Amino acid sequence: MAAMDSLVEEYISTHQGSGKLHERGVKYFAADGATHFGRVLDPFRPYITHAKGSRKWDVDGNEYIDYIMGHGALILGHSHPAIVEAVQQQMARGVHYGENHELEVELAELIRNMMPMAERVAFFSCGQEANMMAVRLSRIFTGRRKVLRFEENFHGWADELIHEGSAGVLADEVTVIPSNDLNIVEKELATREYAVLLTEGGGAVMNGRVPIEDDFVRALPDLTRKYDTVWVIDEVVTGFRDAPGGWQSVVGITPDLTTIGKCVGGGLPIGAVVGRADIMEAFSPTTPLERRVLHSGTWNANPLVCAAGIAACKLYQDGEPQKRTRARADYLREEGNRVLKERSISSRLYSRTVVHLYLGPIEFEPSDDTMPPTKDTKKIMNPELGPIMTRLGLHLLQRGIAAFDRGFSVLSAAHSKEDIDQTVQAFADSLDAMIAEGTINPL
Ligand SMILES: Cc1ncc(COP(=O)(O)O)c(C=O)c1O
What we know:
Largest sheet: 7 strands, mixed
Number of domains: 2
Strand content: 5-15%
Strand order of the largest sheet: 4-10-9-8-7-5-6
Order of helices and strands: HHEEEHHHEHEEHEHEHEEHHHEEHHEEH
Bound molecules: pyridoxal-5'-phosphate
Distance between the termini: 21 Å
Low-confidence stretches: none
């Protein structure tokens, strides 16, 4: 315990400016001073003043290699020059016209070029709004009410999108089933009560903490078509992080609707539903009112956001930032797994451009590093691991790395090989410290 306390003491003494801001913040923000549940930490997370590329700095002058990357939105790193320039220029031309403008058309064209299933596009302020609209469009199109979802899939904090069992949630129309079992999917769909099947791109939780099997996903278009249910892939994290065509282009599938967000806005807030023209006909003013959606939203297709999105999407088109990000993630995984093995810790890094940490029994050797060494969702999502991850996150923060406190690290094209080497060294030092203090036990 003494060692644990000394880490907290050291952290507090090297983060005094952040401590003072935290004292002010707790008076307003009920989540122990934080504005997002992922920014809560005992004693407090650093208060950041600026960021560039792969790095960010706090009010006390501490420097971090950042693996939060705007909750996954920044595949180009912080303040990419092309995005900064586009936003600065647009700022001077006006940030809100309350009218149609060229930038929204250009951004839609870029999205369609990368994701040809985007026959129509509708813009929102964030990914969750896009998912809410995807559910509504599906209800209108099918004349049904129910929503089918997979375990641990996250689509936002709104009633029908958040994890089952969350407090204050009304989701009577939602059924949650395990993924990777076609019989269960078919049994539900065959009731012909479902308007929509929602599927998180890349697997559940930030691009595949709980993986989804390719063969399973490839069977979903036929099944949903057979029972007239709209199939929506939520690519809010994976579009266009995995590839210019999103995760669906990697697996080789086409849903009826796709929702995107995060990376699409180049770091500014955005969401979009894209997909089949007949389903999105609900937006048309010629559609009878009983089948029409009145799509309001003060921030829809905001010019500033569109300017950032265009600059970002132009860079995503050739797939180079995605490939570079994947290469860095592969390197972090390889080196991190070596460090874990050397210390005989039963644990594994896996997944694609968001690197996940599995801490638990190794049940088999997966054929590749995108998969964890178990298929048991309960073991992957074991809530008892939370405090260990948080502790690891604090050790890493104190060593200048903002990573893994929630079990994953988000890579970007701005991370260099040197960044990863420094991170792996800090990871090894943190694990050694945790073994010494008894918060991680080698086999
Ligand atoms: C898969 C997925 N869908 C939707 C959302 C919600 O997006 P937003 O926070 O932009 O509303 C998230 C947020 O992390 C997400 O991971």
